[in-house]
Amino acid sequence: MRNNCTASLMKVFYKPVIEDLSMELARKCTELISDIHYKEEFKKSKDKCTFVTDTPMLNHVKNIGAFISEAKYKGTIKADLSNSLYKRMPATIDSVFAREVTQLQSEVAYKQKHDAA
């Protein structure tokens, strides 16, 4: 029964569309009008400024980006410091003596600072 109804409806409402010049002209005009309206709406909204509210997720992404940037910066600094000229110098008597004196001065300054407190 249902198939008979749909078949009869198809016969009534279904008509093949014949592509002629007037149909093609109508389709092109519709596309042009749609494009014109779209461009007008774009020009109207182009000068309007909209602010994006800071959502918790957006704040989280910003903080993660800053953290990653800082970690990369510190990583490159540590890599540069570990390859410093002072560490690559050959171990001469003077350089070993200077390193030991610097270490002792640092320890003395640390002890004086914390013993005074």
Characteristic terms for this protein:
single chain; 117 residues; mainly alpha; 5 helices
Average of pLDDT: 80
Instruction: Specify the number of helices.
Output: 5
- The separation of the N and C termini measures 100 Å
Helix-strand sequence: HHHHH
What does it look like?
With about 120 residues, the protein is mainly α. It has a domain at about 55-115. About 80% of the residues lie in helices and about 0% in strands. The protein has helices at about 1-15, 20-45, 55-80, 85-90, 95-115. The longest helix has 27 residues, at about 55-80. The mean pLDDT is about 80.
Short description:
This protein is mostly helical and 117 residues long.
List the helices and strands and how they pair.
Elements: H1 2-13, H2 21-46, H3 56-82, H4 85-88, H5 93-116
